[in-house]
Design a protein that fits this description.
elongated, alpha+beta
């Protein structure tokens, strides 16, 4: 067989393989069925001001009727109000989620302990 023909077949196979991987990644991503949960920020209250953590990733973990926010190994606050129920439902309804979710601190007050987080779909952002 000709060398050029082999190269064309290899390129065609690679293209088909890439397309198959892309289709596989697009179906069933983390929080794929809860797009609304990813689009909004959630109100939180902390034990200390967290203005220096804006833009960093934190862990959301449902606990009873609240959702704890953990940075490193330290609980820095919790999701408050009706947002806690919505976040808990989003985490519990996602089959690919191990009972917790990643979030980013979106905004924080420098004087009070109030801040906002947004759930991260790490399969899309990384």
């Amino acid at each position: 067989m000709g060398e050029r023909w082999k190269q064309m077949r290899a390129a065609s196979f690679t293209h088909q393989q890439d397309a198959a991987y892309e289709r596989e990644l697009k179906k069933g991503n983390l929080f794929s069925r809860t797009a609304r949960a990813l689009e909004r920020t959630y109100s939180c209250t902390g034990s200390v001001p967290v203005a220096n953590l804006v833009g960093t990733r934190v862990l959301l973990r449902p606990r009873g009727g609240a959702v704890a926010i953990i940075h490193g190994n330290v609980e820095i606050g919790c999701v408050i109000g009706d947002d806690a129920a919505e976040v808990t439902l989003a985490i519990d309804s996602e089959p690919h989620c191990p009972g917790m979710a990643l979030a980013v601190v979106e905004d924080a007050a420098s004087v009070t302990c109030e801040f906002a987080v947004r759930i991260v779909d790490h399969t899309e952002e990384e």
